[in-house]
Design goal:
Elements (H helix, E strand, L loop, with lengths): L3 E4 L5 H5 L2 E15 L7 E2 L1 H9 L16 E2 L7 H10 L9 E6 L3 E6 L8 E6 H8 L5 E5 L6 H6 L5 E9 L4
Parallel strand pairs: 3-8, 4-7
Antiparallel strand pairs: 1-9, 2-7, 2-8, 2-9, 5-6
Amino acid sequence: RCDIGLSSRNLKDEEKAKGLNETILAYDGIAVIVNPENTVSDLSIENIAKIYKGEITNWKEVGGENEKIIAFQRPERSGSQSMMVYFMGDTPLKEPLTYEMEYAMLGIIEEVAQYHNEDGAIGYSFRYYFDGMTQVEGAKMIAVDGVYPTTESITSGEYPIVTPLYCITVKGNQ
């Protein structure tokens, strides 16, 4: 249906068997985002997993203030959510926060509650999207395992939550 596609995940074996090729174009990292008033500036991969599993529920458990953690997720089919599910491996994410949205004739639809910069909030997004495209004000990225998500640390692979971004083409298509 198209000549070129983009993906934040590698091709599955069955997709390759259908004649698709993948070429790495760039790398991006999943940035962990918190409210700028949050005193936590670094989280371990283990603690991020525990937060999103629901085992750590208060910032004081990771060196912050005595405040409930509000862990936001991305919609199920988004690239950053797919990356987070991959990162979590066999550990399932806890049920996401949801909002009920009213859409005229469709009635009420439940949607995943995406990051809102409120006290206690934590979220994640591709670093480039957060810092380069949206330039969200009033939120801060934090380090993971002591490494801040810079272009250099992502490109070198030093930052621990990195994914290649792929160009997908059809074999033999010039």
